[in-house]
Design a protein that fits this description.
With 289 residues, the chain is of the alpha/beta class. 32% of the residues lie in helices and 28% in strands. The protein is elongated.
C-alpha cells in the first residue's frame, strides 16, 4: 500500500441510528502525521464514531476513507494498517502474553516480535500470567502493546490512558509523539483526560449529543478562545455576536468568546482569561447559547 495520501482517515456525513441516540452527520479528518483528540461527555458518540468508522458497527449513512481509499477497495490491506484500542480487552482472557503473541503472529503479516517484546518489557507486563488476572492498568498497557507491534499507520484509540498513573500516562503520550514522527502515520485519540490532549494533540474534535460541535486546531483553541469575566449587570455590555456561551453564577458571569485579542480591545475593563480545553467543553455543554 502506498503512502501518498493527505489524510489517514476521512469521515463525511457519518450517521448511526439507535433507539435512543443518533450519531448525526459527523465530519472528521485525521491528517497524516497528526494526532486528533476526540472529546465529549459520556454517551456523546465518541466510541460509536470510532466503531462505525472502522466498520465494527453498521453505519446508516456517510462515507469513510482510510489512506485515501474506501474500506471495500482493499479490506485486508487496510485493516493490516489499522490498530484499534478500546477500554475492554478483546483477547482470550485465559491466554498469557506469550500465548497471545503466537496467535497475533498468524493474524498480522507485519507483526514485529522485537517491538512486541520491547513494549512488554517497557510496560513491565508478566509474560506468563493469564490476561484475566491483569489489573485495569495492565490491560490498558497490554492493548497498547498489541496496537504498536504490527507496524500500523493509523491508531484509533478509545480512552487508551484510562486507568494509568500520571507517570505511565506521560510515557504513553511520548510513545504516541514518537509514533507520528513517521508522517505517514496518525492517531485518533478519544480521551476524557483533556490535559493529555493539550500535550500531544494537533487537532481537537468535540462531539456533543451525537453532533460535531467543532473541529479545530488545538493551538487555535488554546491561543484564540477566551473567557470574559464580568458582573451580571455588565453582561449586557458584551455584544451578542461575541458570545459563544454564557455561564452564570450568583454575582458573576463568564462568557466564552472565540477571539481573545478582539475581546481585549473591545472590553478592556473586563478580566479575560485563557481557557483550558475542558473549560471550553463545559461552556458548550452547560452554558447558555
Amino acid at each position: 500500500m502506498g503512502v501518498n495520501y493527505e489524510n489517514a482517515l476521512e469521515i463525511k456525513g457519518l450517521r448511526k441510528n439507535f433507539k435512543d441516540f443518533t450519531l448525526d452527520n459527523i465530519d472528521l479528518v485525521v491528517p497524516a502525521g497528526s494526532i486528533v483528540g476526540l472529546i465529549g461527555e459520556n454517551g456523546a458518540g465518541k466510541t460509536t464514531t470510532i466503531k462505525a468508522a472502522a466498520d465494527l458497527v453498521h453505519k446508516d449513512g456517510g462515507s469513510v476513507k482510510f489512506f485515501g481509499m474506501n474500506l471495500s477497495e482493499d479490506p485486508v490491506g487496510i485493516k493490516e494498517q489499522l490498530s484499534l484500542v478500546f477500554e475492554d480487552v478483546y483477547f482470550n482472557p485465559i491466554l498469557t502474553i506469550t500465548q497471545t503473541e503466537n496467535v497475533l503472529k498468524n493474524i498480522y503479516k507485519t507483526w514485529d516480535s522485537n517491538a512486541w517484546n520491547s513494549y512488554i518489557t517497557r510496560f513491565n507486563l508478566p509474560a506468563d500470567k493469564p490476561i484475566k488476572e491483569f489489573s485495569k492498568g495492565m490491560q490498558v498497557k497490554f492493548n497498547l502493546a498489541v496496537a504498536l507491534s504490527h507496524n500500523a499507520r493509523l491508531l484509533m484509540l478509545d480512552e487508551p490512558t484510562s486507568g494509568l498513573d500520571p507517570v505511565m500516562r506521560d510515557e504513553i503520550l511520548d510513545i504516541f509523539l514518537d509514533f507520528i514522527q513517521d508522517e505517514s502515520r496518525a492517531i485518533l485519540l478519544s480521551s476524557h483526560i483533556t490535559t493529555d490532549l493539550e500535550k500531544v494533540a494537533d487537532y481537537i474534535a468535540f462531539i456533543h449529543s451525537g453532533k460535531m460541535i467543532f473541529f479545530e486546531k488545538k493551538d487555535d483553541l488554546l491561543n484564540n478562545y477566551a473567557i470574559i469575566r464580568c458582573s451580571t449587570d455588565d453582561l449586557a455590555k458584551i455584544s451578542p455576536s461575541d458570545k459563544l456561551a454564557v455561564r452564570r453564577q450568583d454575582y458573576q458571569c463568564s462568557v466564552l468568546v472565540s477571539d481573545r485579542h478582539a475581546a481585549a480591545r473591545k472590553y478592556p475593563d473586563f478580566i479575560i482569561d485563557a481557557p483550558a480545553i475542558d473549560e471550553i467543553m463545559l461552556f458548550y455543554i452547560k452554558g447558555e447559547k
